[in-house]
Structure prediction request, 356 residues.
Amino acid sequence: MSYDKKRIKILIAKPGLDGHDRGAKVIAQALKDAGMEVIYSGLHKTIDQIINIAIQEDVDFIGLSIMTGAHIPITEKLMKKLKEKGIEDKKVFVGGVIPSKDIPKLKELGVEGVFPGGTPLQETIDYIKNKAKTP
Amino acid sequence: MAVARYIKDEKDQILDVIYESGIHVKPLYSPKDLEEIGFDYEKDLADPGHYPFTRGIHPLGYRSRAWTTRQYTGFGTPEETNERFKLMISHGQTGLNVAFDLPTQMGYDSDDEMAEGEVGRVGMAVDTLRDFEIAFKDIRLDKIGTGLTINAVASIMLAMYQAVAEKYGYDPKVISATPQNDILKEMIGRGGMDLPCRTCCETYRRHHRILHEGYAPYKSS
Prediction:
């Protein structure tokens, strides 16, 4: 194994009460297959728990998987807490059931990658690889 | 993965089919097979509406009574849900199927931190009996059966339904409710807790105690 390049480390998280984890697991597997290190939070995590995992595991990216329609308040809360904790360098992306009208709102919150259901896996992988290059 | 294994002879004729579970199924059956196993019509098949109910629990099936139509309904507040219930019934629905929001489904109050952003989102929010009273106001609970699509807290929701029916003056014998109450869906399917509920058959004769759901266990493999 070569150590000259750091592996991209990602947290795939399921915030709130959503019980649908198939999408999160598919994405986690795809990112792992693409050579990244992936941590999966498990179901029903609070924003504080997600932040803690992100700090302890020192991830580069946090991917939220949300199917409940609560993506705006949840993402808003996460972004706020990232700032509070001084770890806003961690990049956030969101996937799940995201209506296209909400994508601009998520981008306003500082989420650059939004991947609703049906997004080709390669698109998400490419986004992360490109994003990882930029500080 | 193959579902069945086909055993063939040299002429490519199928001799045996073995399913994943190990069950052997012949490619073709005839009355001779029934003779061989000592088939008894009354005992093994019987008329519809009779034991062992191989052909359904009703003697005339859907010819005697059409199936219940109930679309999964419920959102926002109990008031909005009540309005929606009435709309669905006025459009010919013969039953109700209540959608609860996730905090209610998982047993959280609407003001709990975990419920943030999810109150009234994918179904109606229920915190107290008053919410149920509003949701079922002016609905003929003796004419309409209700499916309660909820598992972990099904016993509480069923008790609330019964309390509301009692309050509105219905005989427990005429009301009909079906909690989902499905451990496969709740625990295996979506990682929740399941606390199965039982009801008194004598008092609540028209209740169905469980409704197995195929979607969530399938989705979570």
About this structure: The longest strand of chain A covers residues 61-66. Chain A touches chain B at residues 16-22, 42-44, 46, 68-70, 72-74, 77 (CB under 8 Å). Residues 76 and 108 of chain A are 10 Å apart (CA to CA).
